[in-house]
Amino acid sequence: MKKLFVPKINRARLRSLLTVAALLALNVLPAFAQSTTFNSTDLKTGISNSLAVIMMFGFVLGISAVIYGGFAIRRGDVDQGKMSIIGGAIIAAAPAAVFAFYKIFGLDTSSAVGVGNF
Fold first, then answer.
1. Per-residue pLDDT reduced to its tens digit, 72-116
2. Which of 47, 51, 84, 113 could be cross-linked to 69 through a Cys-Cys bond (beta carbons 3.0 to 4.6 Å apart)?
3. What is the dihedral of CA 95, 99, 102, 105, to 10 degrees?
């Protein structure tokens, strides 16, 4: 007769697993209850602040690309230097251009585009 493989259940591990599952299940209920107090202004502020951080990193990256292009031209690699300067200028100016388009078309009052509350 074949012996069936039955894994041994570690009682301590099972108890801790059930405790974690119960805590997760009980902590999910207040998250559902908070949906009635959802405020879109808070969401727009969070998105705006996140975009501001991304825009700052992009600006620094664009400026460093322009500087790298200057050094490449100095080294003698003129084509690579020109492309790096043009790319860096586009990267650094992109957030300002997008914000200008939002202002021009009147979308700035109800949008999350901006520089945040810094």
1. 999 999 999 999 999 999 988 887 787 778 778 776 665 555 554
2. 84
3. -110
